[in-house]
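Lab meeting, item 3. Inverse folding demo.
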């Protein structure tokens, strides 16, 4: 199921409202002394192609955005802990300036949710009177918030509240809590009072539990779909979060101080940065358009230039990855940003001499930008990831075709921008076809000929919040276990075949490996070295080396699964995971974030 939109005309926060809340919180912050730890959940079993290396060398923008918002509002005592760097971190042992923080936040993608629950479980080991308020957020909370709560008295691993939206929702929540909090009262106690008085029900974008036992949820209240901030220039300065990073270590506890600015680049040489959000296409396997309520949001060129310049000045970071869904989505806006970056100066020098940036686009929109590709290069762009999926357009049509894809790739290469295709393997695509371009290897070959510098091949996998999600389960394609091994959340990353109607799904699993081997191998490394005198010089060779190293991890992690698929018994699910805990909206109707058919509690009269 896709996330439902808010009523037409009510999808966006009023212009200036985020700025207003930031100013109001600054006044309150001066009176309090709130200490906050924000953890980023990360399951190290997900480390393989296509993003191995980038996954740990780019401090995620989500936790940084939340940390930046806290500092911007005056809550300086905030620390960001990345499980990518601190895998032994134990929230039960965290102290900031010698005391247990008031708020513990955890951010998680769906595939890291086991680690997220482990962090919540551990935070709950702190005895109740001293326990911080536990707030969960990030994509897991957005699409499946109920999984962050437990109805099991034997394992009451529940967050206090899940934020199903962005920083604006968190700040609204904090404003309510701080307005009811008494002198010396804990944030957790203020939260319970606010919850019980109904004060949270006017903040769209929250899910909280009601129940008598500590952490045992009897029902979940969903305050609805968030309102989105339309003008991304209103967001707090994203560079602030870099000052909050916990230094990498093997300790369970926190260091006395955050990572010094001069050491930030060593651990995170790549910076992910929000430029635009949203996409006009409606690919049925993708949750992004519905999440954005069909809105397209952007920062202005000057704001982006200033942000890149500041991060470069303060932390020395040169490489930026746009957190875009489709950067070229709106040609005029994209051009505006590109033109600004091409002429921007920072500290007396052209910005483009100091920074390089990369992002995601579609083939269709790249061709619409054809005349402007040289300008894109001049603006510092050196690589684009393109959602090619299936070049023939059989799986999904979003304006791509063999000819169009090849043309887009050739044009990018010609101006010195590396095209990086993202492909999606599916049940009906064979490994190879004698004729035509339908086979996976046929397409990999075409892409290589057209100039692809890196490659991503993933199996189509049900994504929570997408149109196809439920049908993939109800049609019996999604596996529960294979050969006695349960399919775990970290396996929903497209690298494992965990949903297929194919009679020999092990073939699909091996096809992914063969597709990669066909692209990343010593022969093509050699070719890339020989042909280094092109506009992209040694980058293809570098990507070959990284690809081969990454592939060893992919093979090590997924080959055993291929064997299970070959010999093991496959058990299938017949329904998507729904909340076992009854869920309702604030008015007692169905909850916006629940899967249809999930239980709705009878209206409680005792609130
Ligand atoms: C950049 C990116 C990456 C990068 C960088 C990750 C990193 N280390 O930073 C790379 C390329 C490595 C990557 C990899 C993958 N990604 Co990715 N990625 C993105 C992308 C395009 C942008 C993420 C981002 O930085 N956004 C900007 C920040 C500011 O937004 P945010 O993270 O959503 O955080 C906001 C809110 O969620 C909220 N929030 C976040 N945390 C918290 C915490 C609290 C307490 C609160 C209150 C709020 C809150 O507030 C934030 C500010 O608004 C998103 C799509 C998108 N546009 O969001 C997909 C996305 C996050 N990726 C996704 C996926 C599936 C993957 C891969 C599995 C793909 C693959 N098959 O390999 C891998 C996983 C790799 C791994 N081992 O983790 C999915 C996650 C879906 C889900 N339900 O979890 C997304 C959402 C795309 C999608 N399909 O919808 N990805
Ligand atoms: S083009 Fe990409 S971001 Fe847009 S809907 Fe399709 S898959 Fe999602």
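The presenter then showed the designed sequence:
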């Amino acid at each position: 199921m896709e996330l439902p939109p808010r009523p037409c005309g009510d999808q966006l926060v009023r212009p200036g409202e985020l700025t207003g809340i930031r100013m109001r919180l600054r006044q309150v912050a001066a009176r309090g002394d709130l200490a906050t730890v924000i953890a980023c959940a990360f399951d190290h079993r997900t480390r393989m192609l296509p993003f191995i290396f980038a996954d740990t060398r780019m401090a995620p923008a989500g936790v940084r955005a939340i940390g930046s918002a806290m500092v911007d509002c005056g809550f300086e005592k905030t620390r960001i802990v990345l499980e990518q760097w601190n895998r032994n971190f134990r929230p039960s042992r965290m102290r900031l300036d010698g005391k247990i923080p008031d708020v513990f936040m955890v951010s998680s993608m769906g595939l890291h949710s086991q680690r997220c629950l482990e962090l919540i479980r551990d935070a709950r080991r702190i005895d109740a009177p001293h326990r911080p308020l536990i707030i969960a957020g990030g994509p897991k909370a957005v699409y499946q918030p109920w999984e962050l709560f437990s109805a099991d008295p034997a394992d009451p691993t529940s967050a206090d509240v899940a934020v199903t939206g962005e920083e604006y929702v968190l700040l609204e929540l904090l404003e309510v809590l701080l307005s009811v909090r008494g002198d010396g009262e804990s944030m957790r106690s203020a939260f319970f009072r606010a919850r019980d008085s109904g004060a949270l029900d006017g903040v769209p974008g929250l899910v909280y539990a009601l129940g008598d036992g500590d952490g045992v949820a009897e029902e979940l209240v969903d305050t609805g779909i968030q309102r989105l901030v339309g003008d991304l220039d209103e967001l707090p300065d994203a560079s602030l979060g870099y000052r909050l990073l916990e230094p990498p270590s093997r300790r369970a506890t926190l260091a006395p101080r955050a990572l010094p600015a001069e050491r930030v680049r060593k651990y995170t040489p790549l910076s992910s940065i929000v430029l635009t959000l949203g996409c006009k296409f409606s690919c049925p396997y993708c949750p992004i358009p519905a999440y954005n309520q069909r809105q397209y949001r952007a920062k202005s060129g000057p704001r982006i230039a200033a942000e890149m310049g500041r991060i470069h000045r303060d932390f020395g970071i040169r490489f930026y990855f746009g957190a875009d869904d489709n950067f070229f989505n709106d040609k005029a806006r994209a051009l505006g940003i590109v033109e600004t970056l091409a002429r921007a100066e920072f500290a007396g020098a052209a910005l483009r001499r100091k920074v390089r940036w990369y992002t995601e686009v579609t083939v269709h929109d790249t061709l619409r930008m054809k005349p402007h590709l040289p300008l894109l290069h001049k603006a510092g762009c050196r690589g684009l990831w393109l959602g090619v999926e299936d070049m023939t357009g059989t799986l999904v049509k979003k304006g791509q075709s063999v000819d169009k894809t090849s043309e887009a790739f050739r044009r990018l290469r010609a101006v010195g921008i590396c095209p990086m295709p993202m492909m999606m393997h599916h049940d009906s695509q064979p490994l190879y076809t004698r004729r035509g371009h339908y086979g996976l290897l046929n397409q990999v070959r075409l892409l290589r000929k057209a100039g692809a510098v890196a490659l991503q091949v993933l199996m189509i996998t049900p994504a929570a919040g997408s149109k196809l999600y439920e049908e993939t389960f109800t049609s019996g394609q999604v596996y529960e276990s294979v050969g006695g091994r349960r399919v775990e959340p970290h396996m929903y990353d497209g690298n494992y075949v965990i949903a297929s109607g194919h009679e020999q799904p092990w073939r699909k699993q091996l096809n992914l490996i063969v597709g990669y081997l066909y692209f990343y191998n010593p022969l093509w490394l050699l070719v890339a070295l020989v042909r280094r005198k092109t506009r992209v010089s040694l980058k293809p060779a570098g990507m070959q080396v990284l690809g081969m190293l990454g592939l060893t991890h992919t093979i090590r992690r997924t080959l055993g699964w291929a064997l299970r698929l070959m010999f093991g018994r496959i058990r299938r699910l017949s329904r998507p995971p729904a909340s076992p805990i009854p869920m309702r909206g604030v008015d007692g109707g169905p909850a916006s974030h629940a899967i249809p058919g999930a239980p709705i509690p009878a209206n409680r009269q005792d609130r």
